[in-house]
Each structure stands twice: as C-alpha cells, then as structure tokens.
Specification:
Layout lengths: L5 H12 L4 H12 L3 H8 L4 H13 L10 H9 L10 H11 L9 H6 L2 H9 L24 H20 L5 H17 L5 H19 L5 H25 L3 H21 L2 H17 L3 H12 L7 H15 L3 H16 L15 H14 L3 H13 L6 H17 L6 H9 L8 H16 L6 H15 L2 H5 L9
Length: about 500
Amino acid sequence: MPLPPKAQDQLRTAMRKAGCSTRQIALELREQFSMRPREAWRFASGLTLQDAADRLNDLGGSRPGIALWADASLVCKWEKWPKPAGRRPSARALLLMAELYCCEVGDLINFADRQQLPADELQVLQLGPGTGDNALPTPPAASPAAVVETDQTGLVRGAAEEAAAWAQWASSSNVGEIAMEELRANVRTLARDYLRRDPLEVFTRTRRLRNRVFDLLEGHQQPRQTTELYLQAGYLCCLQAWMASDLSPAADALDSAETHARTSLLCAEMVDDNELRAWTMSTRSKIAFWDGRMKDAIAFARRGAECRPSGTAEVLLWCQEADAWSRLGAAAEAQAAMGRAEDARASMRGEDEVAGLLSCSEFRQVNYATAVHLRTGRASKALREAKGALARPAGHAYGTTAQMHITLACAQIAVGEPDGAKEALDPVLALPPGQRLAPVAARMRDFAAMVARSRMADGRKAVELQSVVEDWTLDSAPRRLALSPGTLSD
C-alpha cells in the first residue's frame, strides 16, 4: 500500500512533534488539502488504507453483530462518499471508524454527508456506540407524514428521494470485493493446509474464519455477496465436519461433526449449490462409516452422487460407497462401486471449487481401491497396487499416505510375507502424535487384529508388531484431544 503523499505526511509529523492532537491534525489536513473528514482522520492517525481496513476488521470481529470484512478499496470508497466514485459507509462502519480513530462519529461526517444519510441511520449514529442496538438499520420506509403533501410536484419529488435513499441502502455492504476474493482464497488455503499441517491448528483457524463469515451474514451486503458468503460458510462447515471426525472417533465428536455437516447442507440449500451438496454428502458418508453405520454411509454417498458434481466429488462418493460395501462383506457391490468411480473420473466436467481436502486425487482413489481389494479377498492385487502408488513421486496428504502404508502392511501379512510389514509401517510410526488421526489409528488397530488372526499370531514378531501399534495409538490425536473436551463442538 503506497505511503501518504509527502506533504501531508510532513505536516502530520511536524504537528505531532509540536504536541498537536489527532483532532487538530485532522482539521489542519482538511483545511490545507481539502480532505474529506474520514480521509483526514485516517491520515491524522498515521494509517494507510490497508491498515485502516485491517483494524476495522479486527474491531468488527470482536463486536458481536457488527462484523465487517473491509479492504483498502472499500475504505477508500467510504472516504470519497458522497462523490460518485464513493460508497456510503453503513452506520456500523462509521461507529467502528470513530472507535478506531478515537473520535466522535460527528467528526467523520460533514453537512453534505448528513444530507445524504437516511434519517434512521442518523438516529443510530446519534446514539453512538454502546447504546441502543447495533443492528444494521433497516431500509428506509416512507413516512406517513410525507403523504400529507398535496402539491403534486412535491409528492413526486418526495417519492423519488425515498427511492434514492433506499437505493443507497441497497448498494451498501459490510464486505468489499477484494475481501471476498481473500475469503475464497483463505478457504482453499485451509483445505490445502489440512493435508500437511497440524490438524487441530487448522481446525482452529477454520473455526475462526467460519465465525467471521457468520458474523458478516448477520449484517447487510448485496445479494450476490450474500450468496457467496453462504457458499463459503457451507464449505467451512463441511471442512470442520470432516476434520472433527478425523480428530476423534468418540460418539460426541461424531455428533459434533454431524452438526457441522447439517449446517453445511443448510448453506448448500440456501444457495442451491450441487457441488457443496455433494461434498457435504461425502462428509456425512465418511462420518457414518467411522461411526459403524455402513448402510447410512452408502445412502449418503448415493445421494451425493445424484447431485452430479462437476469435479472429483463423484469419484470420492463412489469410492466411499465401495468402502462401506467392503466392510459389509459385499464384494460384488464394492467392486461395482469402484468401477463407477473410474467411470466418474473419466467423465469429469470441471475442477474442484475448494480442492485440497475436498478433492479426490488418483492417489486417494487408489487408497480406497486397495482397501476394498484387501477386504474382498484380493490381497495380492491390493499389495501390487499399493506398492505401485507409493513408488510414484510423493506430495500426497500424510493421512492418505499413512493409510496406504497400512494397507500395504496388511496385504503383506495376508499373502504370507510378514517380514516386510514392519518396514511398510515405519512411515506411519514416524508420524508426530498430532497427525495420528482417528481413521489412521483405526486402520492401525485393523492391522493389529489381522496379525492376531494370522498364522504368525503366536510368534515373537507378531507380539512385537502388536506392541508397537498399541504404543503408537496411546499417543495419538484422538487420545490427546480427549484431554480437552468441547474443542470440536462449536
């Protein structure tokens, strides 16, 4: 963001050294440089447009019901209003600016501004922050007193003024266009970071951003912005649902994950978005799977596939159905669903909106396929495909990679090659405790159970493997999270 013009900057510095107040500096800037009031107070406070936007966002985020998501462009438009290039700041924005600049709201608006502000917003501003309610003013309505006008010209003019006042309200927004782009980018970043970074830390960041979007939706913005906010809120809730079920297999954590997923589905219905619907159904299928409700997992996966998403969601949904069928021992149904996953990839029509966690790479698809092969009596095929996938260049999500290594170890036990099982598990055993997610821990327990049922069950190697798995699961993300209840519920 460029620095203030040199002359204004020099004036502010000189007046500060002389002991002048911010108010005195603002008045001088207005007089010498014909600045608008809000611009003068920002300069006097020593803030760039981006500085002001960031601090207003922070202030709004700490005040329930008055959230803003401003950017430098929007602050600049607020300062220029009521000129044609400007945009009228809402009462909320003016109240927050007054708090930021440590001045009265009246210092930020001149007589020309007052003439353009609707009467109900002037009333809110006269109350000042901390009194009355902080709800955004409602659209101006025609006053009954105005109807007493008998002069036709006056009546027509009054109606036009009312329409203009409403149009000003309708065009106002508590979120800027650049900020909307930043929101979309932040959602994608969270989905990507979750695949490689500490899951609880990413969950916390996701929760914080979701709450910010919820607060913005309580305010006023243009319809297309409202639609976009609902869409991003839905994706954030979808991410939280998936993360919550990863972090703990406990019943209350899975209930919390379902709550996040239902909220995500509500957002999808509000904006009628099939991509979000599909990913939400995928998430619900995943939750049901790890909750042991295989028929529900299949039903959710099918409902998601019926949405016909354009990206990789349909691939993942068929993989999830196959996964659930294989748990039920239905080999034919499982293999048929995996075939439909391959068909879905071949007929994809577009890219994933969010990607990262909400995407199904070929590696992720093979991870499902090898697990299905293993459960349906095709251990040799699972072994061959797992080795092939792991031999390709790395860069996959650590959780998916860990599950593939566990499948490889299980396949080696199943085909009678136990010597390679421990080596296959080494990358999983090296995972830091915070990345030992519930699905990975469950697969590790499946491995220990397979060892116990195998021909090597009574041997020394089997005992060592089971002991290693037990120690590993004792220091995992679910066990650590159990020490801080309530983390996943909001």
